[in-house]
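Sharing a chain and its predicted structure for anyone who wants a worked example. Both blocks are below, sequence first, tokens second.
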Amino acid sequence: MKVMAQMSMVMNLDKCIGCHTCSVTCKQAWTNRSGVEYVWFNNVETRPGVGYPRTYEDQEKWRGGWTLNKRGRLKLRDGGRLHKLSRIFSNPKLPKIHDYYEPWTYDYDMLLNSPSGEHTPVATPKSLLTGKDMKISWSANWDDNLGGSLETMAQDPLLAKMSEEVKAEYEQAFMFYLPRICEHCLNPSCVASCPSGAMYKRQEDGIVLVDQDACRGWRMCISGCPYKKVYFNHRTGKAEKCTFCYPRIEVGLPTVCAETCVGRLRYIGLVLYDADAVAAAASVADEHELLDAQRNVLLDPNDPAVIEAARAGGIPEDWIESAQASPIWRLIREYKVALPLHPEYRTMPMVWYIPPLSPVVDVVTNSGNDGEDASVLFAAIDKLRIPIGYLAELFSAGDTAPVDLSLRKLAAMRSYMRGISLDNVRDESIAQAVGMSGAQMEEMYRLLAIAKYEERYVIPPAHAEQAHDLEEMGCSLDFEGGPGMGGAGPFGSSSGEPVPVAIENYNSLKSRQTADRPSTPGRVNLLNWDGNGKPRGLFPPEEEK
């Protein structure tokens, strides 16, 4: 047993209102610069819908994640080392800008400086890539504008797995929001896909990062990630991704998306896991068993044997204590209400979700019944198979049992706490009906409903004195003869000289080397200015010699 630590996140979808505050603050903090105009490390998707980039969940098309070969061993869905090296200069399995969206701004100068006239001036949309006028036809969450309408539902890869009858009934059910960031997987296929070894998983906290100096812009990591959460910066020629705000995590602060979340739906904490068990858990043949296999990889931080092994592995004492107080462990293993996103990709993601119960309650209430009554609510969950089936495609590889249990526990919690609030009665039968005790029910309620800041974010600060001993873990399957592609080699980090800008981008970037196209002559946006050149009006004129 090799005990390691992993920073993880759980999101309670019952609380997400789709305000996109997390997306905007992440954008401002990490991708508010040239080369990544189209990039959203954090995005909020409306379900049902096609997502961002479009239909990223269609692995028959994108070939991301892992699959099993004939011998039952893991292999990259898009091919192993030799297959990738054979087409290293041409990778067709990449989303195009059409699959993301063409980013734009507006010609605000028309509003600010237009002379008085008969008609109100209009700020024309202008492409951030070409600078030309454009017509807006798609965005990072166009589904949000359509509200789950038929226009995009037909393209939803998850609905394609369901019958026409299911689709027809589901259209009338509900929609919900799904925030997404990089999953910082225990078995990251992006790391295994990288020919240069630039993608790596930090040993101390499991955060997956990109070494910008080692990155050669092969873009195999983008095609290898089934969640499509790795992006290509066309200005630098490098891959970029969510960093889990590691500079904040290292000092004990939550990520920007969690800090600014209006609904307080995000939980961040440390979990301990057995690194030696990752490969076996990801190799389970039955996709419906992958959820339990991943749960079992996580170790009980209160187990004396685990604590002893953690100490022997160099995990600091305060990190062990943080793992014991972690909300992540309780939501995933103790209460079992949190579920991973697409476990069938076999990357073992470490951003988990609590499925939304709100639509179930709404349906019951709209039918004229008491939406919080336990018996009525349990019966409604049984009948609403279509939403559960859709959620199961998202969180449990199509197995409805884990989703059903999670929703039942959330429904039981509402009914149990309602009895305490209104009648001062603790009905243990409600808790027992879902395999919990009344005390556990109250603890779960506190965590999900009224937990304070320090209870939602249990983040131990980094130990700088240990930095020289830390190793880049890479991929759990990156060993001699394994499917991982990490490390140096003829196409690895030792080959060639670093190129600051990819050749294929040079012509498109040539006109942007002096400034980022100020919308008004004589003005420049200091938030977006790259520091190159001398935009007119920013500096005083030089004296003639």
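Comments welcome. The first strand starts at residue 3 and ends at 12.
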